[in-house]
């Protein structure tokens, strides 16, 4: 299942590369994101109680004063267990992953960024590892995946800024780290993302599953399936894919989606001739996506930074 922590990790990896610092590992981000959620929930619960108390009439407050004090004491005990402990007290065994080459070509600079972010974060101010040997972590889940970057303007309009992924199953920490960098820096349709652009970005991580060959190019459902096509035309081989959300976002029918996907692959025939491409093969798949805006990442990171000062 795609979790919000995966999108947080994309921002963490990209920001660390642009800021020339070490990135946290995925396992560290997952722990911190969980503690952050518990912390904000506890604060929300406290605010709701305060609002209730303010809305009481004077008579109600007097009548329930003794009982009110008991309830407050109880709430303080309950929420205290939700407060995050100092981050420096966490002990996490950082997973070790092998190297993998993304299916999209990468330049030396982007590979260096991937290598930099894959280093152990044991020196990070966020975590202090004890000398006691940690148990081996459970085997990581592996999925084909895509990482998408979008820019969001002042009116909330979203524009694609980069999207690259793989149909080969990869361990999540390795796959997300690799394609967060590759899609930000190596999508040939765009210039590399810069540090100044970070505040305008949102990111999505899509895990792919349930791949099924189609008996025909229209044997799939808009809003449910992503589509991967391959075909030959005039002696050349073509291939391309659209994630499940693309056709919905564009308002396309299945036929319009196939024609657009063929053009994305490089086909230049007339729209009315798409059915004449005799060996058009189609595979449908499903995806689980999670999306995060930079502002949400920044709030989390500020919270995480503050834990080291307590």
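Q: What amino acid sequence fits the structure above?
A:
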């Amino acid at each position: 299942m795609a979790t919000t922590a995966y999108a947080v990790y994309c921002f963490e990896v990209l920001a660390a590369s642009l800021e020339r610092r070490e990135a946290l590992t995925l396992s560290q981000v997952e722990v911190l994101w969980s503690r952050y959620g518990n912390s904000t929930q506890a604060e929300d619960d406290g605010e709701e109680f305060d609002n209730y108390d303010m809305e009481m009439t004077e008579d109600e407050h007097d009548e329930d004063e003794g009982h009110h004090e008991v309830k407050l004491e109880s709430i303080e005990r309950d929420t205290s267990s939700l407060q995050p402990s100092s981050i420096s007290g966490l002990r996490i065994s950082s997973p070790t992953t092998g190297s993998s080459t993304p299916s999209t070509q990468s330049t030396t600079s982007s590979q260096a960024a991937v290598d930099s972010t894959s280093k152990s974060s044991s020196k990070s101010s966020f975590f202090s590892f004890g000398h006691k040997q940690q148990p081996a972590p459970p085997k990581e889940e592996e999925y084909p995946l895509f990482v998408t970057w979008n820019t969001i303007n002042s009116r909330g309009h979203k524009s694609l800024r980069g999207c690259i992924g793989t149909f080969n199953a990869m361990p999540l920490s390795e796959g997300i780290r690799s394609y967060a960098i590759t899609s930000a820096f190596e999508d040939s349709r765009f210039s590399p993302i810069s540090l100044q652009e970070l505040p305008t970005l949102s990111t999505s991580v899509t895990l792919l599953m349930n791949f099924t060959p189609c008996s025909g190019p229209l044997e799939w459902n808009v809003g449910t399936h992503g589509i991967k096509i391959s075909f030959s035309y005039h002696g050349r081989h073509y291939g391309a894919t659209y994630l499940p959300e693309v056709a919905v976002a564009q308002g396309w029918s299945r036929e319009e989606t196939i024609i657009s996907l063929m053009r994305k692959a490089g086909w230049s025939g007339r729209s009315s001739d798409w059915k004449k491409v005799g060996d058009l093969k189609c595979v449908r798949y499903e995806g689980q996506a999670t999306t995060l805006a930079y502002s949400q990442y920044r709030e989390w990171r500020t919270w995480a930074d503050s834990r080291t000062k307590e």
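Q: And what stands out in the fold?
A: Residues 225 and 244 are 5 Å apart (CA to CA).
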